[in-house]
Amino acid sequence: MVQRSRQTTSKYLLARQLPERLPEVRWNLMAPQKCSNDLPDLIFHWQNTSVLPENMAEAQTGSRKTTLFHQEASGGVTYRIPALLFLPNQSVFLAFAEKRSSPKDEHAKYLVMRRGQKEGTSVQWGPPQALVSAMIPGHRTMNPCPVYEKETGRVFLFFICVQSNATAWHQIATGRNAARLGSVSSQDGGHTWSWLTDLTDRVIGDNLRNWATFAVGPGHGLQLRSGRLVIPAYAYYIRRHVSGKPAARRTRPHCFTVYSDDGGRNWTRGQLVPGFRTEECQVAELTRPDHSQVLYCNARSPKYRVAVLSTNGGNQFETPFLSKKLPETRNGCQGSVVSFSPALKPSETGQRANPVDSTHPLGVPRLTALNTTKEWLLFSHPMGRRKRVNLGIYLNTAPLANGSWKAPWVLHEGPSGYSDLAVCRENHTLLFGCLFESGLTTEYEEIAFRLFTVLELLNNTRGNVT
After folding, report:
1. N or C: which end of the chain has fewer CB within 10 A?
2. Cα–Cα distance, 170 to 212 (Å, whole number)
3. Alpha-carbon distance 412 to 419, whole Å?
4. Residue 155 in contact with residue 85, Cβ under 8 Å?
């Protein structure tokens, strides 16, 4: 173990206090070449943010993407696995990602974050910060999955911490899990974070013996109308134990949820989704014609996306089905899904109100249908069948009907990977945020943000709305 000098320890403690003592001060985290296995020998640098415009960024609707995290060198330090959350009480976006020493999963290090202050139809992004409390010594932190609790205004950030020397495929091949379920929280909109809580034993318990590995998300979680907080997750379940045979041949990934009914004080694990292989997933809440709520889950699978519904908030799921309008890329890719109420003002559709004309210019009933409590779905995913290219935004105006996804709008042309969507409804105005991996030659070159309006969405899906 590397011994710290008294001076280094003092700098470490001082930097831990900087965000609370000096709110006008920026503090960054840099990892040196040498570090201990118990706690990285982190060096903190602070300086006035007003003289560092290169660390600020602004995004506006109708504009090009804004890069929030950029690969430092080809094959070198890379940012991957975006997660996006909107805080309506502060009009703030939180953008999360993994910082890695290379694009490889096993080279993940810790999570980073940027806060984006929304002002009208633009977002002013602050500098990046490292989430130093979201770490377990000797582990790498992966798969950010944030959720916002409206009653208290608290943000919960879930993730997994994986033993530094254990790859996902090694866990699957041997049937030996090396992941822990971690969580931190923030009461001040992401300015400061609590220390890590290890939820593995309380939430998963003895089930861990039958799991080769597991993960959450990645991407945002959800608070239901009932108040329940839902974290999407998946596990590689060991179907049977056969000595002398590779574990990979007897494991299958299945989605499940972790949820809380008391504002995040206690968490419970739901049951595994049966049937198809289902991996990285996200959930959205929908309203049925009888006004009952149903939880929709959209999951990664080998050839097509898999959808499945739950009528009890994610504790159990019904029989899953293939969404053949949502094909997977080769080897699959993570995707993001959100639901939103399509209650639109005439100004948001680009039309002037006309009490005589009851038909929306895009072919849907105007105010009668657009003001119902029923939701539509939005989904983001690369469109390429062979490669991860061309990030598509898919719209579904009849989510409970299989095969109702429409042709996508290409939000970004070129290499594209993981993404996360967020819905922003303020003062009767509807906007969407998308945080996504992209680049010129590979999808690992940057993580970018794009803000778009409901009018842009409808105009770019013109002729596809039913």
Report:
1. N
2. 9
3. 11
4. yes
Closest CA to 123 of 68, 193, 164, 203: 68
Q: pLDDT (tens digit, 9 = 90+) per residue, 335-348? A: 999 999 986 555 44
Mind spelling out the 3-state secondary structure of the chain? CCCCCHHHHHHHHHHHHHHHHCCCEEEEEECCCCCCCCCCCCEEEEEEHHHCHHHCEEEECCCCCEEEEECCCCCCCEEEEEEEEEECCCCEEEEEEEEECCCCHHHEEEEEEEEEEEECCEEEECCCEECCCCCCCCEEEEEEEEEEECCCCEEEEEEEEEECCCCHHHHHHHCCCCEEEEEEEECCCCCCCCCCEECHHHHHHHHHHHEEEEEECCCCCEECCCCCEEEEEEEEEECCCCCCCCHHHHEEEEEEEEEECCCCCCCEECCCCCCCCCCCEEEEEEECCCCCEEEEEEECCCCEEEEEEECCCCCCCCCCEEEEEEECCCCCCCCEEEEECCCCCHHHHCCCCCCCCCECCCCCECHHHHCCCCCEEEEEEECCCCCCEEEEEEEECCCCCCCCECCCEEEEEEEEEEEEEEEEEECCEEEEEEEEEECCCCCCCEEEEEEEEHHHHHHHCCCCCC
Q: 174 near 247, Cβ under 8 Å?
A: yes
Cα separations (Å) of 282 from 33, 255, 463?
36, 9, 27
Tell me the whole-structure pTM to 2 decimals: 0.83
Active-site residue set: 105, 418, 437
Q: How far apart are the first and last CA of the chain?
A: 63
Q: Is the dihedral of CA 157, 432, 426, 63 positive or negative?
A: positive
Beta bridge partners of 419: 436
C-beta of residue 334 within 8 angstroms of C-beta of residue 280? yes
For residue 364, the tally of other CB atoms under 10 A from its CB is 17
Return the amino acid letter for 434. C
Is the pLDDT at 2 greater than 80? The verdict is no
- Contact, 159 vs 145, CB < 8 A? yes
Q: What is the rounded distance in angstroms from the CA atom of residue 233 to the CA atom of residue 208?
A: 14
pLDDT for residue 244: 53
Q: Contacts for 460-463 with beta carbons within 8 Å, 24 or more apart?
A: 460/393, 460/409, 461/362, 461/395, 461/406, 461/407, 461/409, 462/362, 463/362, 463/363
Give tens-digit pLDDT for 280-312. Answer: 999 999 998 888 999 999 999 999 999 999 999
